[in-house]
Amino acid sequence: MPTATTTQPPAGTPATTGSGLARRLVPLQLMAFVQAVAFWVPVEKLFMTEIGFDAATIGVMAAAYAALVPAAEIVSGVLADRWSRRGVLALAGIALLIAVLVGALSQNVITYIAAALILGLYFALYSGTVEAIVYDTVLEETGTSTAYEREIGRIRLVESIGLVLSALAGGWIAAATSTRLTYFLTLPPVVLSLVALAWFREPRLHETSERSPLREHLRVTVRAIVHRGRLIPIAAASVTAAVILQAMYEFGPLWLIELSAPAAYYGPFWAGIVGALGVGGLLAGRLHLERRLSVATVAAVMGGCGAVLLTSRSLAAVTVAVVVLTFLVVVVGIHVSHLMHDAVSSTIRTGVASGISAVSWIVFLPFALGFGAMTKQTGVHTAGWLLAALVVLAAAALLWVALSRRISPGTEPSLR
């Protein structure tokens, strides 16, 4: 019976050159780029306040889709492993298209929360799936996972470029016309992303093993995460990093609101956040987080960023802290993602990744509610203590990973 270890390419399949791998991933990179062109994102909070949101209802909205995503994550992960990862990414693109359209048409809080729930479905379908499809493509083309951090970093880089360009353009469009128009202008790039995805040749490593019954598949997926605690440190670091990253996306602009930043500042601020996503992807493999000194340095800088967000009333200092913290959690996320993918079979890879991601959304749910409520009552700097506590936990989890033995392929539970 097949085992839950790193699946190798079929016997007799020659490894291709790096240029062959790069060419194969071009359609996926193009999809990631145009899907990241979201003119509405940098001015979303402004649009939301225009239709009746406040800090508390923003927290409720974030919590609403955080409640939806975990169940959808698990379903999408199993679907991607048992059906088609490219198909699941196509469903994600369709969900994004509908979410942006509903958002563009929203006139009140309830309608926009409905758009947010559909957007949560997009996140559930996309997260975990794109990492698994890149990992399997690297493995299928080269016979090793060595290039994974580089290639997923390139995906993050092109996503970041799309987000930065659209953030700068979105701020200008909103200032010149209206925030609502930025939503409508985002629809054509989403359609183009589906066209680009159709050109991508999906890896088939997850189909090389005998298909197990669904119940057995779920059992092995769960065991792969908790069996003897091998993935627990990795999961802890992944979850805390993901929650911090989501907090930066959702609540980072609240510091600007409290500090009375001008509307023109939102575009560059958001460009800095999404630019950190790309730089983090580009440099993820170069910070050597397998070394304890590097881990200690990253943990210390993360703590310093949290302290700045608690105490500073300077727009420049807050911006630097948010951007640097975003950069570091992206690096941490890619590093632990590589360790996780190395540890499990392609037949359950997306399910395991989605399961861990689902836990991050479960943790984010009470965090979002608490952060939103505290911000409304006492201000974002006081609510920042919740973020600071999360940063400490993330740093501790990263140190736990570094102190733990690196997971070796071939030791996970078997499908029997």
TrEMBL record:
One of its GO terms (molecular function) is transmembrane transporter activity. The chain crosses the membrane at residues 25-43, 55-75, 87-106, 112-134, 155-175, 181-200, 231-249, 269-286, 293-310, 316-336, 348-371, 383-403. Gene3D superfamilies: MFS general substrate transporter like domains. One of its GO terms (cellular component) is plasma membrane. Residues 15-406 form the Major facilitator superfamily (MFS) profile domain. Keywords: Membrane, Transmembrane, Transmembrane helix. It is a multi-pass membrane protein. It is found in: Cell membrane. InterPro entries: MFS, MFS_DHA3_Transporter, MFS_dom, MFS_trans_sf. PROSITE patterns: MFS (PS50850). Its main location: membrane. PANTHER family: PERMEASE, MAJOR FACILITATOR SUPERFAMILY-RELATED, TRANSPORT PROTEIN-RELATED. This is Major facilitator superfamily MFS_1. It comes from Kribbella flavida (strain DSM 17836 / JCM 10339 / NBRC 14399).
